[in-house]
Amino acid sequence: MNRLWIALCAILCGTTTLFADAKNGRLDIYFIDVEGGAATLIVTPAGESMLVDSGTFDTAGRDLNRVLDVIQNVAKRDHLDHALVTHWHSDHFGNHAAIASKIKVNHFWDRGIPDTLEEDPQFAEHVAPYRSASQNKSKTVKAGDLLPFQPGTMPLTVKVITASGEVIPNQGEPNPFAKLHEPQPEDTTDNAKSISLLLTFGRFKYVCCGDLTWNTEAKLMSPNNPLGQIDLLMATHHGLPVSNNPVMVQALDPRVCVTCNGPTKGAHENTIATLKRGKSLQAMYQLHRNVKIADSDQAPAENIANMATTADCKGVWIKSSVAKDGNSYTVQVGPEGKPRTFETR
Predict the structure, then answer these.
(1) DSSP letters of 36-93?
(2) Cα separation, 178 vs 187, whole angstroms
(3) Is residue 341 part of a domain?
């Protein structure tokens, strides 16, 4: 009776919340607001979970609590099967150890832990909790690897497409946008070594590239396009213009893009302009309103999860949920948002 009443209330309120599980066969992707860092939770139809990045450690528990809230209270997970670090900047791996102290994490994945990091003189100190949490047994991935997810009725693969500056073989149809590449100065930071992932669920395709930067994006996508066109893109590097090379963005031609930015970091107007040039783009979403640019130069207000600056931010998340046949998916802003449906290409 209680379940029927909850379902009826959801219908009357105009919103429904469906969670990934074996009964409905859905795949869920949660974009968690860590205000300019990154944290994404993926839950498969088999109930397997993977956290990609975890926000910053020095925010008085703000990012940690938001990530745990989505894992435990929104996605209803009591553990993580996988926790992956795209690269070694503290706004991406900062809370892996703290999360592991709260819930069980079965497997840790990364590109390999360097001894030092030029851009972080305190790296050895910052990475020590991660080493401890993973018991120095995290698994190193390289370009071309497939992460070991359980098979289901609908094929699901998570493929590493870049790692440690290397990319998968450049096979596929010629990329007509390769000629747009204008090289930027060499990026010697760990951003260029980010792990990038291609998730495929039936016909649905999702790409996230951590903080991968301009020249490595071109290396991945030139002269051919090894990924094809996709459905959902997480704007690279929070939507900053040192990333999101049109050689990659326009070739992937996503129907939907989500930018994991903060109020003053990311969602740059140059990146948004690049996204808008995509011929198939149907919707853009942002975790935050960019307070530095005009509202007309970013996603529409109804597609922005958090409008306030940090002091008043509620940490609203964005969720994409893929149907069990992989032929459609929804995107909604927070628990009260009305899901919008998109057809898989």
Answers:
(1) TS--EEEE-TTS-EEEE----S-STTHHHHHHHIIIIIIS--SEEEEEE-SSS-HHHH
(2) 20
(3) no
Q: Based on the number of CB atoms within 10 Å of its own CB, is 7 exposed (0-12), middle (13-18) or buried (19 or more)?
A: exposed
What is the reported pTM?
Answer: 0.93
CA distance from start to end of the chain:
39
Q: Which CATH number goes with the domain that contains 185? A: 3.60.15.10
Q: How far is CA 294 from CA 267, 269, 301, in A?
A: 11, 9, 12
Q: Please give the residue range of the domain that contains residue 263.
A: 19-333
CB atoms within 10 A of CB 215: 19
For residue 269, which of 296, 232, 287, 247 has the smallest C-alpha distance? Answer: 296
Task: Give pLDDT tens digits for 282-328.
Answer: 999 999 999 999 999 999 999 999 999 999 999 999 999 999 999 99
DSSP structure class, residue 118: T
**In the chain, what are the helix, strand and coil shares in percent, each to the nearest 5?**
25, 25, 50
